[in-house]
Amino acid sequence: MIIDRLYQSVKEKGPVCVGLDTAVEYVPGEFLKKYNSLEDGIVNFNKRIIDATIENAACFKVQIAYYEALGLLGLRAYKRTLEYIKENKAISIADIKRGDIAKTAQMYAKAHFEGDFESDFITLSPYMGMDSVEPYLEYVDKKEKGVFLLLRTSNEGAKDIQYITTKSDRKVYNVVGEKIQNIGEKYLGNCQYSSIGAVVGCTHGEEAEKIRTDLNKTFFLIPGYGAQGGGAKDVAAYMNKGNGGVVNSSRGILLAYKKKENGQKDFDRWAGEETLNMRKALEEACKNI
Ligand SMILES: O=C(O)c1cc(=O)[nH]c(=O)n1[C@@H]1O[C@H](COP(=O)(O)O)[C@@H](O)[C@H]1O
């Protein structure tokens, strides 16, 4: 199961997930000028970030929107970035957040678990119902793939719908969590967790312990660290002694160079330093839980 590989990776390299949300304006101008095309500039920026962080990164999350926004050249850069992650024997999460009727979901599954855009994990929204998730599941056993389903997101607007109290006096996210854990039971790895994970933003702290306990077999993808205000202490409650999830930071790592004088020259060095610091902070905070 792919979850065993991710779990092992966290054990060896810590829980940081490096987010490759590579906006063109994040790539230093001098670096971009060295390449004949924007596509090559973006790919090489990503390669430098991957090389500089891989020692302390459990996995890499590539947010497709940043590449789609550039049209075909962006999608080629997206494909080449996923390939580079694979060549380096690292684990990729394609952040595509799909959710549609089952027939259409079959096509999304084919698009992102096979062929040009193949990745190890993808993110999905289960809020259209569990039949919209079903078509991805056959890839879990057959092709060693995994999914992260949105449970409680990091944005303020999470409260608009996910926090609504249902007739059974539970929040919508509690109900969704139970469904995720139930599906996940069928896809357990050897490490206690399932290849059906959940996305829980660290910017909200309510019921953190309950969520972690209720979803004791569910591995978490935890966004919201750094640029969105989340810190190591906010993450710790979701981590189950440090091995129950991966913690994403995108802008915090990609733009670490902006905090340094003349940092753009060695942007990769500062991304590497930020990743290591984040790893240490998370490991320290999780020790006390
Ligand atoms: O699924 C996600 O990864 C995700 C879920 C969520 O609740 N909040 C959230 O920020 N994300 C993603 O996590 C990344 C956060 O980026 P930074 O805020 O720059 O670290 C982006 O790629 C978001 O799309």
Task: Describe the model.
This protein is an alpha/beta fold. It has a single domain, classed as TIM Barrel, CATH 3.20.20. It is 44% helix and 16% strand. An eight-stranded parallel beta barrel has the order 1-2-3-4-5-6-7-8, surrounded by seven helices. Helix 10 (208-214) links the parallel strand 6 and strand 7 (218-222). Helix 3 (38-53) runs parallel beside helix 5 (72-87). The protein is globular, with a radius of gyration of 18 Å. The two termini are 27 Å apart. The model has no long low-confidence stretch (mean pLDDT 97). The site of orotidine-5'-monophosphate has 20 residues, from strand 3, strand 8 and helix 12. Orotidine-5'-monophosphate (OMP) binds at residues 19, 21, 63, 95, 97, 123, 153-154, 199, 201, 223-224, 226-228, 248-252.
